[in-house]
Fold this sequence. Notes:
Residues 120-214 form the SecDF P1 head subdomain domain. The chain crosses the membrane at residues 236-256, 261-281, 287-307, 336-354, 360-384. This is Protein translocase subunit SecD. Pfam families: SecD_1st (PF21760), SecD_SecF_C (PF02355), SecDF_P1_head (PF22599). Residues 220-387 form the Protein export membrane protein SecD/SecF C-terminal domain. 32% of the residues are buried. The chain folds into three domains: 2-35 and 226-399, Up-down Bundle (Multidrug efflux transporter AcrB transmembrane fold); 45-103 and 220-225, Alpha-Beta Plaits; 110-212, Gyrase A, domain 2, CATH 3.30.1360.200. By secondary structure, it is of the alpha+beta class. Strands 2-3-1-11 form a four-stranded antiparallel sheet. α3 (57-74) crosses α4 and α7 runs antiparallel to α8. The chain has helices at 2-30, 35-38, 57-74, 99-107, 152-161, 198-210, 227-256, 258-280, 287-316, 321-353, 357-390; strands spanning 40-47, 80-84, 88-94, 112-115, 121-124, 133-136, 143-148, 168-171, 174-177, 189-192, 217-225. Helices cover 56% and strands 14% of the residues.
Amino acid sequence: MKVSRFLAFLMIVAVFFALAIPSYSKIWNGITLGLDLKGGFDVLYQVKDAGDDKVTQEGMIAVKNAIERRVDQSGIAEPVIQIEEGNRIRVQIAGLFSQEEAKKMLVQSAKLEFKAPDGTVLATGKDIKSNAKYVLDQQTNQAQVSIEFKDAKLFQTITEKYVGQNVAIYLDEKLLQNPVINQPIYGGSAVINGQKDADEAKKLANYLNAGALPYPLDELSSFSVSPTLGAEALDMTLYAGVIAFVLILVFMVVYYRLPGLIAMIALLMYAFLLFAVVRYMHITLTLPGLAALVLGIGMAVDVNIIATERIKDEFRAGKSLLSAVIMGQKRSMPTIIDANVTSIIAGFLMYWFGTGAIKSFAVAHIISVLATFITAVLISRLMLQLLVRSNVIRNTWWYGAPRSIATSGVVRRKGGDKK
């Protein structure tokens, strides 16, 4: 029975490393990095009234949705788009791309109009389905944009009325085409010519599919981070994390012995669990968030230090090995719970009242505290009790007892009598 407990202890360690080592690279490479780690830009817009049409909360949501559609059409992944107080909207986009082109894409109106010879607007981009696409004219080999009207009857009526006349197509008040309608067009499909190449045609199709913004936007502020600077920040933070881990490892093993070693195994589990949660919950990892995770290493170790110090107190009180471990862990729980609950409350307050980087730090902080409960509170305690109950190592010195009271398998009272 005692051997089975030691085997269970070894099994927990073996299963963890068997899972963690092969999947670590996949998890880390799958984490979405924020613009301060990957490079990108942050831009803050002021949403303005459109004439007599005042900005409303519903209008802000419409602007946010329109920007999301534009970003999706461009193929840029994982944008962060947030509505802020004062009718403002913040857009954060990370990755390698032309930042000027991206910012232009966000505010480009793509105002498409079909006009009669007298200038009357016959149809607009609102009458077009969101399925515009680049096509290649098989005869002329020219780039075109294929469009389809929502109401095929509308386009048919226009082409029937203006047979033999020009129906001009304007984009943002610029003439794209001025074709002559030779015959009525049925089915609601048409093509727009005038693009110099496939890239320009694809951009036009994306603008048309994204639709027009319901309100004009004014850029208030913006900043960008180069991919090189982001990579350097990531490397430096990870380097700091590795140094912190090594120093903590040496301290814990030298000062606390077996409980310290178990605490470091639990710490590796903590780091693995933490990054797995970030990866599979699709949380964008920013520099403040990564700093919170590195800070969480110290907090996770602190839980084990509190428990181990309580165990040492029980040794000094003359308790046996198993009794000292059980009572020490039990008496450390109120302190651990109080410390971590107040820390979680602080994290929620930072998230509730903070913005941007503060929110990112708060989310990572909360996740790290919850991961600490699972690894440092539950798993490390289970592993230590399995090792103690197995009786494989009985010398209490290996469990943190001072040399003055530790013997091979027994604890002496201060007066020297055995218990």
